[in-house]
Amino acid sequence: MALTVAKIRTDVADVLGEDPADLPLDENLLDYGLDSIRIMTLVERWRREHGTAAGFVELAERPTIADWAPLLGART
User: Fold this and answer.
1) Which of 4, 12, 8 shows the shortest CA–CA distance to 75?
2) What is the pTM of this model?
3) 52 neighbors 4 (Cβ within 8 angstroms)
4) CA 23, CA 76: separation in Å to the nearest integer?
5) pLDDT tens digits, one per residue of 30-62
6) Which long-range contacts (CB under 8 A, 24 or more apart) does 71-76 make?
7) What angle is formed at CA 30 by the lines to CA 72 and CA 3, rounded to 5 degrees?
8) 8/74 Cα distance (integer angstroms)
9) How far apart are CA 47 and CA 5, in angstroms?
């Protein structure tokens, strides 16, 4: 199964305990409580489930779903 923007949003919401609809694609996820531990959890999940190559530093430098989608090779 390919990684999609919707899946990224759902996974981020899951680690934050939020509703996916409450997470805008272009907002800084750090403002929603995302921290380094949660980013690493997501990196490992996406590597395991989708074979993504993006790492912690890439995602931490640009913490929005909109920025992560191309880094993770997500389909729209």
Assistant:
1) 4
2) 0.93
3) no
4) 16
5) 999 999 999 999 999 999 999 999 999 999 999
6) 72/3, 72/8, 72/46, 73/3, 74/2, 74/3, 74/4, 74/5, 74/7, 74/8, 75/2, 75/3, 75/4, 75/5, 76/4, 76/5
7) 20
8) 8
9) 15
